[in-house]
Amino acid sequence: TYPNVARHSETCGSQLGKGLAGVRVRDGQLQRRVLQRYLQTHPVLRLLPEAARQKVCCACDLKICDHRQVIYSEQDDSYSAYIVMDGTVDALMCAPDGNSVLLCSYERDELFGVADALDRCPRTESCAAGNRAVLGRLTQNACQILHECPETARELLRRSQQQQRAANERMRRLVLCNLETRLARHLHDSAEAQHVNRTRRIVITLPETQTRLAKKLHASRTRVNITLQKWARDGDISYTKNRITVHQSDHFWAKCGLSN
C-alpha cells in the first residue's frame, strides 16, 4: 500500500508542495512565517520560554507530503522529529515482502520521532502520509531544547504515556477480541469522541474509508463489510459510505459487551 517503504531514506530531503491554508508555500519567507505562526501556538512549544521557542522555530522547516509518501523507514538514521500541522501520518511495521501493518496514526498537533532523534537510534517504525500532510520537521538540536525545558519535557512525557496506553489498548483488543468486538469498540470510541453517545439513536461519522478502517482493525475489507452487513440485517445499524446509524445504542452496546 505504501510504495518503496523499505528502500526510502529520509535523507532524500523535503518535497514542498502547493499551498497551506490558502497560501503559496514556495516562497521561503512565507514558509517561515506560516511555520512560526503555527509553532507559537502549538500545545507543547508554547510552554517554552520565548528565547528557546525562537531557537526551535529557527531549527524547524516545513515538509509537505502527498498521500502515501514515505517520511522515513525502519532502521533509517534518526536525523529529526516531526509535528503534524495538518493531515494524518501512519506509523507502519513493514515486512520484507512489502506488506505493512498499521500500528497507529498521528493526527494534528501530535509529535513523533522525538525519542529516536534524542537517542540517535535507528527508526523503529516506518512513517508515511495517510493523506496529504503538512509537517514541521525538528532538528536534533530543537528536540534537545524541548527535552531540556522542564515544562515541555513533562508534556512530552505525558503525551508519550498516552501513546503507550493507546498502544496497549490496541494490542489488547487485537489479541483478546474478535473482529466484531473490535469494530464495535471502534464505533463506541468514535461516538464518544464525537459526543453523540448520549441518545438512543446515534449517527456516527467515519472519516476513513472502509479499506483504511479495515487496516486499523487488522482485518480485511471484506470481513469488515460482512460484519456491517450482518448488523444491518439484524436491524442494529444502517450505514452509508461514511456514516453509521445505530438504531438502539444501549441494546447494541450491551449486545457487543460494551457499556454506554
Question: In words, what does this structure look like?
Answer:
The protein is an alpha+beta fold. It has nine helices and eleven strands. α2 runs antiparallel to α4 and α7 crosses α8. The longest helix has 27 residues. The two termini are 36 Å apart.
Quickly list its features.
4-stranded antiparallel beta sheet, alpha+beta, 260 residues, 11 strands
User: What is the general shape?
Assistant: elongated
Counting helices, strands and paired strands, the structural category is alpha+beta
Q: What fraction of the residues are assigned to beta strands by DSSP?
A: 15-25%
Q: Write down the oligomeric state.
A: single chain
SSE run:
HHEEEEEEHEEHHHEHHEEH
Q: What is the CA-based Rg, rounded? A: 20 Å
Largest sheet descriptor: 4 strands, antiparallel
Biggest sheet: strands side by side, in what order?
1-8-3-6
Mean pLDDT level? 84
Number of helices: 9
> What share of the residues lie within helices?
40-55%
Number of E-type strands:
11
Unreliable sequence segments: 3-19, 21-25
End-to-end Cα distance, whole Å, is 36 Å
